[in-house]
Design brief:
The structure is a single chain. With 314 residues, the chain is α/β, with parallel strands linked by helices. Helix content is 39%, strand content 27%. It folds into 2 domains: 220 residues, Rossmann fold (3-Layer(aba) Sandwich); 63 residues, Alpha-Beta Plaits, CATH 3.30.70. It has 11 helices and 14 strands. The chain has a 6-stranded mixed sheet, with helices on both faces. The longest helix has 19 residues. It is elongated. The two termini are 40 Å apart. The structure holds adenosine-5'-triphosphate. Adenosine-5'-triphosphate (ATP) binds next to strand 2 and helix 1. One of its GO terms (molecular function) is ATP hydrolysis activity. InterPro entries: AAA+_ATPase, ABC_transporter-like_ATP-bd, ABC_transporter-like_CS, ABC_transporter_ATP-binding, DrrA1/2-like_C, P-loop_NTPase. This is ABC transporter related protein.
Length: 314
């Protein structure tokens, strides 16, 4: 089943269309990375999907409930970690969570057991009676995460969950996200941290008012840049360019610093032929590796292409 489905979901603020015709399906148990530049409409999308604001047009189903018709059920099924978690500095960690548990309508007994569970899970139990005003940014973030989870939502929206955290605290949050996924929950992760998205996400949507691309990190890489093989050779790599360009499956090749970069579609089958051709021609090979592009390169290329296309159509 899909945790989230949208169909031509659109939200305008006056003449500004923040979310334009978004059609998307996110299967249950997925970590979905929602990437886009500042002002792309990501927070607006999260607010739409958690039934905090209404769409201008289009439809969506969240946790199987229809947006607009079953909003209360949607709110009960989702947990949200926003960029500015409103915690009460004068209350202790325990009191903060108990306060929010009551807002979620948990019984007093269940609230206490859930608060205890998440304080333990996020390693805040020893600090439960300390006022949150004295907490570090990492501790606050963990507390805000606990708050989003108290009612055991099936779908969790996380807006920049590791932003501003030191590497150790960020790692704790990332590991926690992996545990949530292992429990079968769906995570909708908004982030500008592309290596983090690459590490965590099963599916990625690149978004700038409209959905520019949707796919697994690997598919996005191949879709943007194709596949390729790097061959490191002894001596000047330009010497072997013609040797590989004549191979029928090679789309293109170039050489730099003793490395031949060869664009081809099926490395598993074609690398042995490529290597054989080079050896036959007299090349001495140091290493053969896949060409890998970072998600950051893919993202920047996509957003830049879209910016140029928008400029041309104006
Ligand atoms: N309540 C509102 N009234 C008017 N305009 C709004 C409102 N909420 C958002 N917008 C506009 O919609 C656009 C998208 O904003 P949104 O906050 O969704 O972007 P974002 O992708 O979350 O940005 P960031 O990465 O900077 O957090 C922006 O131009 C913003 O100014």
């Amino acid at each position: 089943m899909n945790a989230i489905e949208t169909n031509q979901l659109t939200r305008a603020f006056g003449s500004l269309v923040a979310v334009d015709d978004l059609t998307l399906a996110i299967p249950e148990g997925t970590v979905f990375g929602f990437l886009g530049p500042n002002g792309a409409g990501k927070t607006t999308t999260v607010r739409l999907l958690s039934a905090l604001i209404a769409p201008t047009s289009g439809s969506a189903a969240v946790a199987g409930y229809r947006l607009g018709e079953q909003n209360e059920a949607i709110r009960q099924s989702v947990g949200i970690l926003t960029e500015t978690p409103g915690l009460y500095d004068r209350l202790s960690a325990w009191q903060n969570l108990m306060f929010f548990a009551e807002l979620y309508d948990l019984t007093a007994k269940r609230a206490a057991s859930q608060v205890e569970r998440y304080l333990h899970l996020l390693d805040l139990w020893e600090r439960r009676d300390d006022k949150v005003g004295g907490f570090s940014k990492g501790m606050r973030q963990k507390l805000a995460l606990a708050r989003a989870l108290l009612h055991e939502p099936k779908i969790i929206f996380l807006d920049e969950p590791t932003s501003g955290l030191d590497p150790e605290a960020a790692r704790v949050v990332r590991e926690f996200i992996k545990e949530l996924r292992a429990e079968g929950r769906t995570i909708f992760l908004t982030t500008h941290n592309l290596p983090e998205a690459d590490e965590l996400c099963d599916l990625i949507g690149v978004f700038r008012s409209r959905l520019l691309r949707l796919g697994t990190p690997a598919h996005l890489r191949i879709g943007m840049f194709g596949t390729g093989t790097q061959v490191r050779v002894v001596g000047d790599a330009t010497h072997w360019i013609d040797t590989v360009r004549v191979l029928p499956f090679v789309h293109d090749a170039h050489a730099e610093d003793g490395v031949l970069s060869v664009s081809l579609d099926h490395p598993d089958e074609q690398n042995p032929v490529l290597v054989q051709a080079l050896v036959n021609a007299g090349a001495q090979i140091r290493a053969v590796e896949p060409i890998s592009h970072s998600l950051e390169e893919v993202y920047l290329e996509l957003v830049e292409n879209e910016r140029q296309a928008a400029a041309v159509s104006r």
